[in-house]
Write a structure and sequence with these properties.
Shape: globular
Distance between the termini: 14 Å
Number of domains: 1
Oligomer: single chain
Structural class: alpha/beta
Number of strands: 8
Strand content: 5-15%
Number of helices: 12
Radius of gyration: 17 Å
Largest sheet: 8 strands, parallel
CATH superfamily: Aldolase class I
Order of helices and strands: EHEHEHEHHEHHHEHHEHEH
CATH topology: TIM Barrel
Length: 250
């Protein structure tokens, strides 16, 4: 059985001091959690949070990284810089990076492959916009994103990749895909992994759901056969909400 993986993406919230205090609260509150846990503070807070989560059951994630190892890339952060702060995982291809900053499937693929080469665990995000869903293009969009995003990734490397399905129209809007709708896309993604790799790879890959996950819907979402965890945005900034999500009972 696949392990549940609950990740908190703090986005552009919390100063270093606020992040440190919140990480301390989370470490205490989630000590008994039986799922894999990750939090991704903003870059400026990674060092502060790193010292807090070391030795706990929470791994440290970053929200993005550069596709190159070093050089003239103003405002970017490299994989080595993240590793220097004991970062373990990195969120790549988030819908906000795709839609606001124009990141392409090819660029995201470069990041995924570099992260794997450096020993970081990518949380590889995919998902359709509302227009694409209403046009009946969900599977076409997801197929393209998965196929291009994982190009050149071996089956052995895939073991370090978590896929996060996050319908763009459900992020930060309060709207959530129904559990059945979300699971249908997750099942389709698993079928794509079977096509691209093997049945064993498809059975093993963790696929998170992201999109307005809250304490009152997490149990129903996690009860779905092909949903293996959650990439949590707004609710990850509230101690009681994230605690309830991480400690959910099926």
């Amino acid at each position: 059985m696949r392990e549940y993986y609950i990740a908190g993406n703090w986005k552009m919230n919390k100063t270093a001091a606020e992040s440190r205090e919140f990480a301390e609260q989370l470490a205490d509150a989630l000590e008994e959690a039986s799922v894999k846990l990750m939090i991704a503070p903003p870059f400026t807070a990674l060092e502060s949070v790193s010292s807090i989560v070391q030795g706990t059951n929470i791994i440290l994630g970053a929200q993005n990284m550069c596709h190159e190892t070093s050089g003239a890339f103003t405002g970017e952060v490299s994989a080595d810089m993240l590793l220097d702060l004991d970062v373990t995982a990195v969120i790549l291809g988030h819908s906000e990076r795709r839609t606001i900053y124009g990141e392409t499937d090819e660029l995201i693929n470069q990041k995924v492959r570099l992260a794997l080469t450096k020993g970081l665990e990518p949380v590889f995000c995919i998902g359709e916009t509302l227009d694409e869903r209403e046009a009946g293009r969900v599977e076409d969009v997801v197929r393209t994103q998965v196929t291009k995003g994982l190009a050149g990734v071996s089956e052995d490397q895939l073991k370090q990749v978590t896929i996060a399905y996050e319908p763009v129209w459900a992020i930060g809007t309060g709207k959530t895909a129904t559990p059945d709708d979300a699971n249908a896309v997750h099942a389709f993604v698993r079928s794509l992994i079977r096509e691209l790799y093997s049945d064993a790879a498809a059975q093993a890959v963790q696929i998170q759901y992201g999109g307005s996950v809250k304490p009152d819907n997490v149990r129903e979402l996690m009860a779905q056969e092909d949903i293996d965890g959650a990439l949590v945005g707004g609710a990850s900034l509230k101690l009681e909400d994230f605690k309830k999500i991480a400690l959910f009972k099926k």
